[in-house]
Amino acid sequence: MRKLKIWTASIVSGFDSVISKVENHESLVASSIQELQTAAAHATVKLGRLKQEIRRMKDKRCQLEQSRERWKERALALRESDKAKAIECLRRGKSVESEIAQLEKEIPSHNQLADSIEADLRKLQNKIDELKLRKRAFSTRASRAKAMKICQDYSATSGEQLEDTFERWELKLAESEIASSACTDSLEDEFLREEEFAALEEELEQLEPSLENKTAHQA
């Protein structure tokens, strides 16, 4: 755990000083966050194992306490009938008490270590969250600065050239549209003339003499 503290502290303390010496800032920040997340993952695994050990120790203490009571009961039961066995039962009960006493010392120290690791993990996670937030903020600023630089470069060097290009492009498109329109109109006119002629021809075939002309013709 001490190595973990030293490692994570060195990552965090060196973060600001190192970031000013490299070009790819975003990559460095992402790498540092990844290292901290790896450290947090390792600490989480160790904490889980430590808590399992604490549970095992507590279970063992409970079993030993039950065993101590059994040896005590046996000693009482044999006190009058078999004093030697009763004494042996007491002796074994004392041995169990020694184990319980040892566990009584180890369990608090393990609990204290688990609490310490949990506190370090909370601090580490807070630092990770802070770095992620700062990374997003700086990435946004970097994107904005890049966009502004592109706009400035465009205005300073390429603006007029691009405007000339757009004008030439628009002129070329206009010429193409005029040529296409002329071709389309010519063809349209040809069809319209033919259709008009056919219609007039059909109308001519259906013409009837006027009433006045019919009377004159009959006379």
Would you kindly provide a written description of the structure presented here, covering whatever features stand out?
Keywords: Coiled coil. Belongs to the PspA/Vipp/IM30 family. Pfam families: PspA_IM30 (PF04012). The chain has 219 residues and is mostly helical. It has a single domain, classed as Helix Hairpins, CATH 1.10.287. It is 93% helix and 0% strand. α1 packs antiparallel against α2 and α2 runs antiparallel to α3. It is elongated, with a radius of gyration of 49 Å.
Please count the helical segments. Answer: 4
**pLDDT < 50 runs, ≥5 residues:** none
Strand content: under 5%
Shape: elongated
Which range best describes the helical content: under 10%, 10-25%, 25-40%, 40-55%, 55-70% or over 70%? over 70%
Order of helices and strands: HHHH
Find the structural class using helix and strand composition.
mainly alpha
Q: Architecture, CATH level 2? A: Orthogonal Bundle
Mean pLDDT: 80
Please report the distance between the alpha carbons of the first and last residues.
134 Å
CATH topology: Helix Hairpins
Query: Cα-atom Rg, whole angstroms?
Result: 49 Å
Look at the structure and give the CATH class.
Mainly Alpha
Largest sheet: none
The number of domains is: 1
Count the beta strands.
Answer: 0
Coiled coil: 33-70, 100-141
Protein name: PspA/IM30 family protein
InterPro entries: PspA_VIPP1
Keywords: Coiled coil
